[in-house]
Amino acid sequence: MSSSAVAQSSRGDVFKWALVVLLVAVAVIGNNYFSAESLLYRLIAILLLTGVAGFVALQTAKGRSFFTLAKEAKNEIRRVVWPTRQETFQTTLIVLAVVLFMSLVLWGVDSFLGWLVSSVIS
Asked: Which family does it belong to (predicted)?
């Protein structure tokens, strides 16, 4: 890509991001301004403006790279080997046992240090 193409792309992206910010601001301010109107109408307007803002954001270079990342993440999730119910249950029991043991150890250390400080002070 030439530097002029990069500069043109970045100028266009700046305009698109400014449009996204403007659309979100219109949604927020409009929701506040029309607070007396029905919640359904305000929600429809907010969803519509958010959808348009999202569409415009996806037209930028960062938006396209985010969409690509999301597609790759979805494909990666399909390849994950999820634990069985038994493995999940056993792991949960191990975590609970370690948490209980460490809480008892910390309680013991705290009690000992409290006793030690009390005996030094008195």
From this structure: Belongs to the SecE/SEC61-gamma family.
Tens-digit pLDDT profile for residues 58-67? 999 999 999 9
The DSSP call for residue 38 is: -
Rounded distance, CA 111 to CA 114, Å?
Answer: 5
Hey, what are 79's tokens? 């390849």
Count: domains in the chain: 2
Q: Does residue 103 share a domain with residue 64?
A: no
Contacts of 23 (CB under 8 A, 6+ apart): 49, 50, 52, 53, 56
DSSP letter, residue 2: -
State the amino acid at position 14 in one-letter form. V
The pTM of the full predicted model, rounded to 2 decimals, is: 0.56
Judge contact between 48 and 19, C-beta under 8 A: no
Whether 68 and 108 share a structural domain: no
| Residue 17 near residue 57 (C-beta atoms within 8 A) | yes
Identify whether the C-beta of residue 20 lies closer than 8 Å to the C-beta of residue 53.
yes
Joined tokens for residue 64: 């396209």
